[in-house]
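Q: Entry one of two.
A:
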Amino acid sequence: MKKLPMIARIVLGLMFFVFGLNGFLNFLPVPPMPAGAAAFAAGLSTGGYFFPFLKGLEVLCGVLLLSGCWVPLALVVLAPIIANIFLFHAFLAPDGMAVPVVIGLLEVYLSFFAEPYSKHIKALFHSCKCQCQHEGHEHGAGEKSEKKSGSCC
């Protein structure tokens, strides 16, 4: 079981590295899309910056996952990308739901269940608790300290 996080990380990294590179090099054929999906993609591509930025992030995060460096950062950056891939297929191209489900499951596994990455991701969801220097007053993020300097956090 200790190899499962490494396998999941490499599979997810390969998927984003290969599909990200495909956005620049076009070595894999893109299947025809339904009309709504094609219109959505055409709208995003008219600005000229979105797809190169997106595919560049996918390649970068794929490299980070494959190398094992800064994996929690790669997982955080990929989370909204994966959510959009899933929603794109769910609403605009439902025939291709297999790949988004697989990458979603890999992301959730690596982010919340696989050691050593899950502890870093879960830490993002913990509230800020700090001990003030005065009167032992403890407060969470967003609460103001009674000190004149503002919040302790």
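Q: Entry two of two.
A:
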Amino acid sequence: MKTAAESLNARPSPSPRAYLSRRYRLSASHRLHSDTFTADENRAVYGKCNNPHGHGHNYVVEVTVGGPVNETTGMVCDLGELDAFARTNLLNRFDLMNLNTLEAFRDVVSTTENFTIEVYRIFGAFPGAKITRVRIEETSNNSFEYSEQSQKG
């Protein structure tokens, strides 16, 4: 049992930290192609994904944010604010688009790995909570993930 002096000098316990994952769906096309490769090298490296006409995916983008649980609301962040941010910065920007035509992929190949990193970068600007992870499901067999741990190597 703590003494009165110990209780007065005790540091307040930090707010519990929690994580919220939210999924968004979008459709986009791309062509895996690198200008540094010859046509034969592009076909060898990217196979059918190097089709000159591109191909599309129905992506499932899962964003995880974290932070202290607000004592008043009991939440990590306002879900409406997260959805509005996603609508403006993810869905309106990428849904029904050819990724190769976008500025974000001007200098990098439009792989889902690079798409995942770009989505992580975008959600880094979300003011309501800290982005901790992005996972993108490209097909039922392929998913890609980028997290704060990925930045550390």
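A: Comment on entry two: The mean pLDDT is 92. Helices lie at 4-9, 39-46, 79-94, 112-123, 148-151.
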